[in-house]
Design goal:
Four Helix Bundle (Hemerythrin (Met), subunit A), Rossmann fold, 4-stranded mixed β-sheet, binds 5-S-methyl-1-O-phosphono-5-thio-D-ribulose
């Protein structure tokens, strides 16, 4: 297991692994202000849905550290400004606004307390979000074991591992637990154009753990499946709508279609904080559009003609109908998702995993 942690609160500031520098350099990046945190999230120094939820929560703490408000109303005004800055960083992962809502509720609960006490309560909540994510990852890892057989050959996309969460990861968390249980799994990692999270981060993580991993171009997944070299695909998620539609890294939908064509299971792993049951389907999920240069340049060098039109959505939406199962900390959920996910919301996780 690699150290240091992906993100940490230390001495009144945030320290994170700068993921833009991996795998070449393992460098720590520090954020002392909410503006620095906004930059870190936008530039993907910290990334992955659960990790940006944690980062945004700490960002709020940073933004309120110097707050000298004398009334709750003044404090609330500044808190809203700071939250707006965090919310504007990346729109797709619902974990970010979910974390902000948790902090807002704590502030409101402490309305009668002093500003110093409210700040203290907010920090405790941000740290709880962080620690809870580590526990949820572990539980997702355990719950996913019924889907991973001895010798499984797994195809994954982007990075849904330690670098994307406060714990062992979601999709990769399942693979870590399988590996620790002695299952001889092997992994194919899509390189994940354009920002190469699969090539740069997933391979790096898995190699540290000693899990056999083969890096492939995104475009070779179909051939691998046609040759019978993959047993299932397993990915993370940024937001899941009530009908099971899943927003995840661009290219995920391609994989799901390929799995359907080759009769292979397509699994999604995510904590319940990634569910957005207020959205009835994936059409309502906001999809982040990123800079054209991410597509027109490779490692800082132009790879397309100047002036070419570019489309660069960071995520796509896989229809729930293509998702074989959604693995959460509360259990393994299957279609019809409208029913199973809404039941899951009321399921008490400590009674053992649900199978709905
Ligand atoms: O743009 P990124 O790198 O933040 O995208 C990350 C993903 O798409 C992950 O698969 C998703 O956030 C799940 S992480 C557990």
């Amino acid at each position: 297991m690699f150290k240091p942690p992906t993100i940490a609160w230390e001495d009144n500031r945030v320290v994170m692994i700068d993921q833009t520098r991996l795998p070449g350099e393992l460098i720590l990046h520090r954020c002392d202000t909410v503006e620095q945190m906004a930059e870190a999230i936008r530039s993907l120094r910290v990334r992955g849905a659960p990790a940006i939820g944690i980062a945004a929560a700490y960002g709020v703490i940073l933004g309120l550290q110097g707050c000298s408000a004398s009334t709750f109303e003044e404090f609330e005004e500044q808190m809203e400004r700071v939250m707006a800055l965090m919310r504007a960083t990346r729109p797709t992962a619902v974990n970010l606004s979910w974390a902000l809502e948790r902090l807002r509720s704590v502030a409101v609960e402490h309305k009668g307390a002093s500003v110093a006490e409210i700040k203290k309560a907010l920090l405790v909540e941000a740290q709880a979000i962080h620690q809870q994510d580590a526990r949820l990852c572990r539980q997702i890892g355990e719950n996913g074991q019924e889907l991973v057989h001895e010798g499984a050959r797994v195809l994954t996309h982007c990075n849904a591992g330690r670098l994307a969460t406060g714990g062992i990861g979601t999709a990769l968390g399942i693979l870590y637990v399988a590996h620790r249980q002695g299952k001889k799994i092997t992994v194919y990692a899509d390189e994940t154009r354009p920002l190469l999270q699969g090539a740069r981060l997933t391979t790096w993580e898995l190699m540290q753990e000693g899990i056999p991993v083969t890096l492939i171009c995104d475009s070779s997944a179909a051939r691998l499946m046609a040759r019978g070299q993959v047993d299932f695909a397993l990915v993370g998620a940024d937001r899941i709508a009530a009908n099971g539609d899943v927003a995840n890294k661009i290219g995920t939908y391609n994989l799901a279609v390929l799995c359907a064509k080759h009769n292979l299971p397509f699994y999604v792993a995510a904590p319940s904080s990634t569910l957005d049951l207020a959205l009835s389907d994936g059409d309502q999920i906001p999809i982040e559009e990123r800079a054209a240069e991410e597509v027109t340049e490779v490692c800082g060098r132009r790879s397309a003609p100047l002036g070419v039109a570019v489309s660069n959505p960071a995520f796509d939406v896989t229809p729930g109908g293509l998702v074989s199962a959604i693995i959460t900390e509360k259990g393994v959920f299957r279609s019809p998702y409208r029913r199973s996910l809404s039941r899951m919301k009321n399921h008490r996780g400590n009674q053992g995993p649900a199978r709905l």
